[in-house]
Specification:
Order of helices and strands: EEHEHHHEEEE
Radius of gyration: 22 Å
Helix content: 10-25%
Oligomer: single chain
Distance between the termini: 29 Å
Strand content: 25-35%
Largest sheet: 5 strands, antiparallel
CATH topology of the largest domain: Thiol Ester Dehydrase, Chain A
CATH architecture of the largest domain: Roll
CATH superfamily of the largest domain: Hotdog Thioesterase
Number of domains: 2
Structural class: alpha+beta
Strand order of the largest sheet: 3-5-6-7-4
Shape: elongated
Length: about 190
């Protein structure tokens, strides 16, 4: 290590990096002291002021037939309408139907906006997925062009942890509502 100092990375969010230099420490001699100093650093709490914040709509996401099939196999969805175009058409759908949890693929882009927002104060390394819900207007099918927009609907503290509820409205190319995906993220507090 250059200059005999210990450099450790602290990640207040997944997309931002802050380097914290602990001056005057050498790795071999001072590692226990450095570890203690790192453990005692205060984490930035989740900013409650983000409640009510909406992020810009994402770029459109074109739902591909093979993506639907891959997702269906990954979640062990065995309904033929998720895998076979003819079965989907026989059931009245224009193409294969995405399994009910597929919206997480689209929602992922909106959650990246939230997790990458430095004002939010979310340490991605401390995030645990707490809950996921979907409210459908209609099924997602291959060929859909979807856009999503996230709003932070709640920020709560509970037992030293922060709980963030984020609602993502997913619409088709015509602007019609398709599904609402609601996630609750738990940001663990200091150990």
């Amino acid at each position: 290590m250059a200059g005999g100092s210990l450099v450790c990375e602290v990640w207040p969010s997944r997309l931002a990096t802050n380097l914290v230099r602990l001056p005057g420490l050498t790795p071999a001699r001072d590692a226990p002291d450095a570890a203690r100093r790192i453990r005692t650093m205060r984490r930035v709490p989740v900013n409650p002021a983000i409640q009510g914040r909406s992020y810009p709509p994402t770029a459109s996401y074109l739902v591909g037939r093979e993506k639907v099939r891959e997702f269906a196999r990954a979640v062990f969805a065995t309904n033929p309408i998720c895998l076979d175009v003819e079965a989907a058409r026989a059931a009245g759908h224009p193409d294969v139907v995405a399994p009910p949890t597929f919206p997480v693929v689209v929602q992922e882009h909106t959650l990246a906006q939230l997790l990458g927002d430095p004002d939010a104060g979310i340490d991605f390394g401390r995030v645990v997925h707490g809950d996921q819900r979907f409210q459908y207007t209609r099924p997602i099918v291959a060929g859909d062009e979807l856009t999503a927009q996230l709003t932070v609907t709640a920020v709560k503290s509970l037992g030293g942890n922060s709980m963030i509820t984020a609602t993502t409205e997913i619409s088709d190319a015509a602007g019609a509502h398709v599904v609402t995906a609601t996630s609750t993220l738990v940001v663990r507090g200091d150990d």
